[in-house]
Amino acid sequence: MSQAKQLYELNANSAETGKFGIDQRQSTLIAFSENDPDNPLNWPTSRKWIITLIVSLSVFLMPLSSSIVAPELSAIRDDLQMGSSTEAVLVLSAFVLTYCLGPLLLGPLSEMYGRVAVLHFGNSFYLVFNLVCGFARNKGELLAFRLLAGFGGAGGLVVGAGIISDCFSKEERGWVIAIYNLGPVFGPSIGAVIGGFITQYTTWRWAFWATSIFDGALIVLGLVLMKETYPPIILARRKQKLDSPELFRTPYENPDQSLAQLYRNSLLRPLLLLRIQPIIQLLALFYAYLYGLMYLVLSTFTTLWREKYHQPIGASSLHYLALGIGYFLGSQVCGFLADPIYRRLKANDSGKPEYRVVLMLPASILAPVGLLWYGWAAQAETHWIVPDLGIALFAGAAMISFQCTTAYLYEAFTLYAASATGAVYILRGLTGFGFPLFGPAMYQKLDFGWGTTVIALVAVVLGFPVPVILWKYGERLRAKSDFAAG
C-alpha cells in the first residue's frame, strides 16, 4: 500500500470519510487534514488568544508568587517566631526550588495526558497549598506548603511554550511569544511591589490569599474556555471514538513508550548531559549563577531600602520595579539585535549556534558592572535612583544572557533541546534556592559595597570566559558530542 493511502488525512467535514474523517476500509494511520477544524492551528484567532492569555497569566502569577513574600520576610519571621533571617528567606527559596525542578516531574505527564490537563492539575495543586500557606501556624507548615505550591506552579512553565507552538504557526509566533514572555519578566518585580503594600496595610497572609483568588479565577476560566492543544492527544482521543480503534493508529503513537520511560528520559538524560557535555556545563554554571544572584537581590532588596534609606515598606517595595524595567529592556535589546546579528554572520555559511552567543560577551561584562554600581552606590547611600540604575543594568544584562543561553541550547542540541535546557534548570533551581540563604549574612558582614564586589568578581570569572570559549571552541566541542548538532 502506498504512503498516500496509508496516511489518509482526517477531515471532520468530509462525508466520504465518515464522522471522524477516516476511511475505515483503507486507512490504518490517521492525521489532521490541511483545514481540519480540530487542528489547533486552524482554530479561530479569538480562541487562540484566549488560550494564550490564560497561559500567559499563569506563567505571570507563579514568578509573582515566588517574590511576593520578599518584602514580608521580616513580618513572617516575627509572626512565626523564626530564629534568624536565613530561616525567613527559606520561605522565598523553597518555592523557587520546586518551581524550577517541577518541570522534570510534570513534563512527562503532559506527553501522556495532554498540555491543558497538566496546566489544570498544576494550577489546582498550587491553589490548594498556596491557600493553606495563609493559614500556617508555624514555620514548618509554611515551608512545607511553599515547597508543594512551587511544584504545582511549575505546570504553566512546563506547557506554556508548547501550547503556543500548537496554536500558532512559526510566522505568527513572534508577538505571541513576546506577550507570553512578559509574565516571567515582570512577575518577580510586580509581586514584590504588591507584597510590600500588603505588608504595610494588612497581614502578610493576604499575599497567599490574594494570589490564590487570582489562581482560582484562572482555573475557572481555563476549565470553561480551554481545549486540549497537543496534537497527539487530540488524535488519540479521536481514534478512541471509532468503532474499532485498535485497527487505527496516529503518527505520534509509540506502543513501546511507557510513562516510566518518559520519566527516565526526563530525569536521567539532563543529569547525563550535565555530567558529560562541556558546553552544557559552561552554560549551566553561568546561567545558574546569574539566576541565583537574581533571587539573592530579591531577598535582600527590602533590607537596603528599609535599613539604609529608612523608607516605609510600601515605598521601599517600589524599587523592585527597577529590576522589572531592567529585565524588560534586556529582553527587548536581545529581541531586536539577536536575529539581525545572526543573519549577518551567517551570510557566508549556513549558520552556527555560536552566532547566538555574540550578545553574551557585552552582557557578561555589564552584569558585574551593574552589581558593582549597585553595591557601592547603596553603601554610600547616594540618591535612590543611583543604586536602582545599577541593579537595572545587572537585570538587563542577566536577561540577555538567559535568552542567548536558551537560543544556543535549542540550536546546538536540536534533538535533545528539552534535556539540555532541563540540565540548566536543575542547576538554576539549586542556586535560586541556595543563594538567598547566604545573602543576609553576607551583607551583614561585608555591607553592600564589599559584599556585592565579591559576587561581582565571581560573575566576571564565570561569565566572561563562557562566550569566548563557545565562540572559539564551540563548533569543535559540538563535533565531538554524540548529542549536539553538527
UniProtKB/TrEMBL annotation:
Transmembrane segments: 49-68, 88-106, 118-137, 143-164, 176-198, 204-225, 279-298, 318-338, 358-377, 389-410, 422-442, 448-471
Keyword Membrane annotated: yes
Matching SUPFAM superfamilies: MFS general substrate transporter
Keywords, ordered alphabetically: Membrane, Transmembrane, Transmembrane helix
One Gene Ontology CC term in the entry: membrane
Pfam family, one: MFS_1
InterPro entries given in the database record: MFS, MFS_dom, MFS_trans_sf
Major facilitator superfamily (MFS) profile domain mapped to chain residues: 51-475
GO molecular function: transmembrane transporter activity
Topology term for the membrane: Multi-pass membrane protein
Localization (cell): Membrane
Principal subcellular localization: membrane
Keyword Iron: no
Name of the protein in question: Major facilitator superfamily (MFS) profile domain-containing protein
Organism listed in the record: Penicillium brevicompactum
The organism's taxonomic lineage, starting at the top: Eukaryota, Fungi, Dikarya, Ascomycota, Pezizomycotina
